[in-house]
Amino acid sequence: MAIKVLHPGLATTVQDLGRPGYFHLGIPIGGAMDRLAMRAANLLVGNDEGAAGLEAVFIGPKLEFTRDVTVAVTGADMPVKLDGEARPGWTAFAAKAGQVLSFDFLKSGARICIAVSGGIGVPLALGSRSTYAIGALGGFNGRAIAAGDELPVGDAGASTAGRTIPEELRRKPGTPAQLRVLPGLYWHRITEEAQQAFFADEWKVAPEADRMGYRFRGGRPLDFVPRQPPFGAGSDPSNIVDSCYPYGSIQVPSGSEPIILHRDAVSGGGYFMVGTVISADMDLIGQLQPNTPTRFVQVDMEGALKARRERAELISRIRALF
């Protein structure tokens, strides 16, 4: 063991880059909500970028190290302290056995990623150490960490203390946040006026925002094109014959409040999908606090692929630092 949990923070879980390949069985990809931040934290401490770290929401944990490690905290702006002394975010620093990592109040963003040299050494479950709490799968005993837990840490190489990632490579949501959306197979189910309103309106993140999905409020309700419900679909105009849900898809039950399905979301169901948030912008969602103003921006496939290339280039620039 190398980490004693003195206080768990809020919904702090072990996460890596997820377990792709099981979505068809109803097991979501999971993994860090902000994958760029988790990759960056691991690279800072000399880990493989897919190593397991900790993800905390709104309130950081209090952790005591039982051996010397290198630590990095990325993601949200939540001031970092080691034995009460400030440490910079997005920068690797040394922590000695007996020292305690803690955090001040959140300033911006929503989630932090904590990496330690050697990675969190919980057992693999379906090829990943990520916690899927709803299914009690992976992570530390399939759940969020709790006070008194002792987390194992893998073997580490030489210290990388002092490494840092410059501000221009730390991607964060703007104000308002802008999420690019590719309209989907069911786009034709709403009227042209509703299509325009969906992208014209400003929405706000609702309190119901977690690893399964983010709900948004404040925009105009969507009007549906009249239809005769097909066999197998419900009577509500937002109902469809059960279908697969793409990762990042946006369902709008009854046309009122869009829900973006995120890392731990279900793989299918009976609500229509207005479109899908492009992969390049999914990390941003994990950093949105409730009531954050948000706009959806329409893109085509060419724009989505261009954004994916740009995100890959950003990751490559971070890798090149080390």
Automatic annotation (TrEMBL):
InterPro entries: CT_A_B, Cyclophilin-like_dom_sf, PxpC. The keyword Glycoprotein does not apply. The keyword GTP-binding does not apply. Gene3D superfamilies: Cyclophilin-like (2.40.100.10). One of its GO terms (molecular function) is hydrolase activity. Residues 24-314 form the Carboxyltransferase domain. Keywords: ATP-binding, Hydrolase, Nucleotide-binding. This is Allophanate hydrolase. It comes from Pannonibacter phragmitetus.
